[in-house]
Amino acid sequence: MAAPESSNGRARRLAGPADVTTPFVRTREFMNQPVPENIDQRPDELPLARPTIAVARQVFHDELVLLGFRLFLPVGGAGALDRANREIGAALEYYAQRGWLDRPEGFFAAPPSLTDATIYPVKIRRQILDRMTFDSGYEPRRGEPGRDRWLGYAANRCEQALVMRHRVPRPWVVCVHGALMGRGSVDLRLFRARHLHEDLGLNVVLPVLPLHGPRKVKGAAFPGTDIVDDVHAVAQAVWDVRRLITWIRTQEPDSPIGLNSMSLGGYITALVASLEDGLTCALLGVPVADLVEVLGRHGGLRDDDPRREMMVLAEPIGRMLSPLSLTPRVPMAGRFIYGGLADRLVNPRDQVMRLWEHWGRPEIIWYQGAHTGFFRSRPVQDFIDGALRQSGLVS
Q: In angstroms, rounded to a whole number, what is the distance separating the alpha carbons of residues 163 and 42?
């Protein structure tokens, strides 16, 4: 009889060479679907994506990202899948005992005010701005599964942010980036930070999320298939953004503050906007509503991939960490969402529309494109500018 195969070996086998054809197959399927006759449907319905060449290119890019997830995000070394499952079981017990699976607001501890930060000038893309660094101060609670491993990620302890500030008090916008971002030149371009600062007159802050950019740690990823690490990353991301907000309020107590976000950042922003009082607006771009659900159902894992079973086990944790389990505190007039109709990474119906419904159906725009298509979408750019003005953040 053959020796039993490790969980990691099974994961690698299930992400075999045949998967390489998937982006081509699924893009062809998208192009071959019937052309919708009625694009403009009722506001409460999801419009249909047009199968054009331009949109198909974006779909292909999304599918390549999903392929990378399948191929390059196994859980780790031998026995790591079993270890991850044991940790999820322990985490479920830990959070259930404290009632946080049913009342998740208690899981997110409010951070202390930030008063000690280092700020120095840097030059990025031929532009002089400030870099801000401070000790995050976040720690998983004693006894919480995965605590020791998380505290061992030394580079992740220092939070960094880019700051573009006017000489006189102005409204502030905190721009929360997506996965695989957190690099100054990329974030400044994708958020159109110079436009926000110079044309709209805002103070702009771009924090780096855990395990991104200069906070990246070898062998760890956020989001990734190590669910307990994801839990701590979400908690720390929310903590860091809220701590940054306390710093803004000590600098300019009377200045309004808004949040602008994309993708993973939309998910973090939706959580912050459901925990923090006094925000003027929250803009959610292609937002995740349930991270564990995205990783399990929409993350490109095949039905027979053993990581799928792990994601099913972790579903109560996903609900605990979801903004769908919290009540938004941002005024209705300050809630805005945009989504891509052909998004293969964040399902528009299961993720974006559910969050839109939960937030009371605020103003929303759908663009004809896949996940990253909003970078080049003029209607989305106009929507963001209009939202910032409509909310009152920009006079």
A: 41
Give the rounded distance of the alpha carbon of 34 from its chain centre.
Answer: 32
- The number of domains in the chain is 1
Contact 267, 323 (CB under 8 A): yes
Mean pLDDT of 277-306: 85
Residue bearing the bigger pLDDT, 104 or 81: 104
Rounded Cα distance between 178 and 343, Å, is 14
Give the 3-state secondary structure of residue 240: helix
Interhelix angle 227-251/80-97, nearest 10 degrees:
50
b/e burial code for range 362-380 (CB count within 10 A of at least 16 → b):
bbbbbbbbbbbbbeebeeb
- CA-to-CA distance for 342 and 288, rounded, in angstroms? 15
Q: Which two tokens stand for residue 316?
A: 């109560």
CB 30 within 8 A of CB 51: yes
Query: 0.85 exceeded by the pTM?
Result: yes
Any idea what the CATH number is for the domain that residue 85 is in?
3.40.50.1820
- pLDDT of residue 68 exceeding 50: yes
List beta partners, residue 340.
367
Report yes or no on 69 lying in a domain.
Answer: no
